[in-house]
Amino acid sequence: MVVRKVGNRKVYNEGGVQYVHIRIVLPAGGGGPVMTSNLKHAAVSLDDLPACILDDWDDHVAYIAAPATVDVPDDVRAAGAGLFKSSGGSVEKLLSSAHCTELAHRHQPSRAPVDATAPRKVEAAFTFTGTGTLVHPFGDMGDAMWREAVAKAVTDMTAKFFSAGRVFYDTPPIGYAALEYPWLGHYLAVEWVGKLLVSVASRPFFLGTEEHRAITAALPAPTYGAPKYLPARSHWTRGPKDIQWAVHDGCYYELIPATRYAGTEFAAMHAAYRHLATLKDDGTCPPAARLALTARAVYGAQEVLVTMDAFDDAKACRDDAVLMPGRIQNAVAAAVAWLASRRIVYVDVRGPNVLLKRGTADDVRLTDFDDALVSPTPITNYADYMAAVGEFARELEDRFASICCVRMVGSGTFAELVVDLANEDMDAIRAALKAAFEALPVPPVVVAAVVRA
Asked: Distance between CA 160 and CA 306 in Å, rounded?
């Protein structure tokens, strides 16, 4: 690690243990200066991240019911969801050591030895896996317990993953915070997917037991490849809501800041890009869906970098070109149907997300998969697609209602408008989608041979 500056050295004593606190300022770029133009600096400098997270909690951190980027056993997922549900969605209860202790005891193991001589002082400890085990004991922190645990997770995650500066990883960085109360504890997962996604990562366990050791050993430990850097000598364009994009050497780059989406939306976006990375062209992929085969997401500190092949010299379409019957609409509908048959539900059909290149036979491309959803099973018919889009539209309606957002009559997303059968403006695109699903290739029927003895 290259250190540009070390300062603010402080020495203090706590519980008879001497601690040294230093502030380390890291270089702004990667292994060397990243020569780009018009690129906005990272929203928060690396050395200030923990403090900024505590100061602007809502902008940086989101609670979700279960880990988004690693697989955990069903009983762990159920325990975490139960703990989350028991709080009634109250962040204050989840942050409070008193309330969280009560909630954890509701979901504690049914049988385990209890050490009656253990001190009843509330403590929290942070354990990070991946570079060994680092334990930072705290005293009773009251309502700050979760906040402090997450902030310390960020401190160690920053040192492990981002000592080289503004870099990105194929796998979202993750750390674990162990919250330990009298006799009882459980783990939190801290996942960096744009925002810091915090969730319960284990069922509660009694401290110092074999179960405690087994749960610690079983925490998922992803592997990480070499970090990726922003392209050098590239020109960036700033779009709405602080999104930035660039085209460099045949590749499209898009930087999405943590403030762009809610935590659950970042989790859904990660699921979509993870699934997109598994798609292959088996010879049936329509031209308009080909960019989806190259779409990838990599993860940095408080931002996500999306990449895909560039569609050079193309221009975004107008909304009416997509909504009116014709070649462009048919190409878009074919792409949407093919992606749905591969479990990707595209819910944002509109002009800016359709690229058109004049003068070529295959001149239409669907782009922007940030809002795509992953279906549990392939969707191969129009009715099932409309049902999936309708569910998404209802979630949007609930989201706007929860923030008391006043919307203009007739406004809405594609998902909300297309499921409104009274909206005649959407009749043509509905008909095109129905025809596209009917034209999907029929999967081959596998006939099992019966062998008789």
From this structure: 22
Domain boundary assignment for the chain: 45-218, 235-438
Collapse the DSSP code of 10 into the 3-class scheme (helix H, G, I; strand E, B; otherwise coil) and give the result: strand
- Which residue in 183, 169, 166, 189 sits closest to 26, CA to CA? 166
Q: Show the CA angle centred on residue 377, arms to residues 374 and 379, nearest 5°.
A: 85
- The SS3 of residue 442 is coil
Query: Class assignment of domain 235-438?
Result: mainly alpha
What average pLDDT does the segment 55-78 reach?
82
Residues 118-176: pLDDT tens digits? 333 333 333 333 332 333 333 344 556 677 777 778 888 888 888 888 899 999 999 88
CB-based burial of residue 401 (10 Å sphere; 0-12 exposed, 13-18 middle, 19+ buried)? exposed
Alpha helices (H) in 38-144, listed in sequence order: 49-55, 57-60, 74-86, 91-95, 97-106
* Rg of the chain (C-alpha set): 25
Nearest to 134 by CA among 120, 116, 154, 118: 154
For tokens 């923030």, name the residue.
403
21 strand-pairing partners: 10
Sheet containing 315-316, strands listed edge to edge, beginning at the edge strand earlier in sequence: 315-316, 354-356, 364-366
Residues 6 or more apart whose CB falls under 8 angstroms from that of 173 comprise: 157, 160, 161, 191, 192, 224, 299
- What DSSP state is assigned to residue 445? P
Determine how many CB atoms are found less than 10 A away from the CB of residue 149: 26
Rounded Cα gap, residues 221 and 214, in angstroms: 14
pTM, rounded to two decimals: 0.79
